[in-house]
Write a structure and sequence with these properties.
Blueprint lengths: L1 H5 L3 H24 L3 H51 L7 H4 L6 H41 L17 H39 L3 H8 L16 H39 L3 H5 L2 H4 L17 H39 L10 H10 L4 H46 L11 H16 L1 H19 L4 E2 L2 E2 H40 L11 H5 L2 E2 L5 E2 L17 H8 L42
Helix pairs in contact: 3-5, 5-6, 6-8, 8-11, 11-12, 11-13, 13-14, 13-15, 15-16
Amino acid sequence: MMTAAFGSNSISFHTSNTCNTLLKELQQLWTEIGETQADKDRMLMELERECLEIYRRKVDEATNAKACLHQSIASMEAEVAMLIAALGEININLPVQSDKKAKSLKGQLASVRPLVEDLKLKKEERMKQFADIKSQIEKITGEISGYGSSMSVLTLEEQDLSVRKLTEHQSKLRALKKEKSERLQKVMDYANEVHTLCGVLNIDFGQTVSDIHPSLHESSMGLVTNISDSTLEGLDQAVLKLKTEKKFRLQKLKDVTGSLFELWNLMDTSKEEKASFLRITSVLGLSESEIVQPGALSPETVQQVSAEVERLTKLKTSRLKELVLKKRSELEDMCCKIHIQPDQSTAAEKTSALIDSGLVDPCELLANIEAQICKVKDEAFSRKEIMERIDRWLAACDEEKWLEDYNLDHNRYSAGRGAHINLKRAERARIMINKIPAMVDNLISKTLAWEEEKQKLFLYDGVRLVSILEDYKQARRLKEEEKKRARDQKKLQDMLLTEKESIYGSKPSPRRSSSFRNQNGYRAYGNGSVTPSPRRNSVGGATPELLTPRSYSGRHNGYFKEMRRLSTAPLNFVAIPKEDTMSFSSIGGSEPESPPQV
């Protein structure tokens, strides 16, 4: 029985031999002692019972150890499963399940323990990654929210440590970093804009941004720039407020500068006085967004312009009368140049009396005169072509007068100094005089066309130009008839003289004086030309006078002086229009005799 209890392997066989040897030795001892067979059987039964109790105890211990191993394996399998679930490692195969039949419990436990350790290390690393990412997320979230960062502990029950979850946190972190960068850029842009606006308006930038958040000031180097919604909103409100103030000051500066410009124009301020305000006035030519110069819209700038406006306003009253009279003189000069009469309602005497009496605002008088100046400028532009034709006609009349005086000089063909210049001028004058009728006719047609277009009369120093031209044509015709009668009378006298000489003989001709200057009134100038004295009356005292616009001007308007003078310089005949150069046959007797051929 004992041998069967020990088993059949080598260890059991060795134990069985030892037990048999000991049993035999024990029975020998019992025999020597003299124990009865009953005592021997009783002691053998007790020995077997004790052996059974020992085996039973060992079996229980082995059973308990087996249960513990099963529990450990199950616990590790559960831990592995939990770690795999937390880490999201779905591709890991448990060695326990694959070697369950092939290995003992201790072998199974030994095979799964390295996996558990490895998964635990992965979990710790993954938790560190999650903790780092989450701390960054919470920090940036706190910066964006403006409440700072609050670190929270990751609990095992709440965490998902899978790669997918880690990727989500990384994506969220990247998005937050991008948002932080954008917000930081917005803060910088806002801060730069606030800095520019504060510079333009001369406002303390440091105080302005410190009121929004201390970290925005340049001196707060220890603080991280705040990028919260409240900071962005505060900056946006600051920019809006500064822009509103900028627009208000710009409009105020425009209003004040507008008054300044009006006073400058009103008082004819010199460029030197305006130069000190050039930097200020140049701002008005820019748009609101282009005004970035520091101090361009500072209160001092607006105050400087306001002070200048106030100063000029005080001077305006004292200088306004002078300006009114100056503008009136300018108006009269313009009217004189184009030979029209200015409005007598603003004459110098009247305006001076009105200003002194205080019945009329000088500004209204000045505006009225300036309006008249604009009207005269438009009138001058519309009369320009006709006035140029009048000037050419008057120049031809001057040459005609000169030629008449020249023909009265009996020494005009002498070989004196400058005689050849006068001969050339006389030839040119004859050509121009032949064009006078065409000039007058063309001038009449142009004037009538102008009157039809403008629906008013073309006045020249208060007299209708067409009337002057018609009178001139009539006087010229009468003058030519008078000259013809004079020539006929002279021919008759010559015939009578010839008959008388044939009867009584010829008389010696009176000695001519060689003094060109004394008898004929000519004066020789340094250029060799000979200028006649003022024109004498033509042959025959009854010859009608040719009335030009100058003559009418002298008769009808004593206020204006004659603006033209007789010119001794050769005229530019090339400038005469083609339509005025039509060739006409010489009017009977109007051309003097040609010089003798040498």
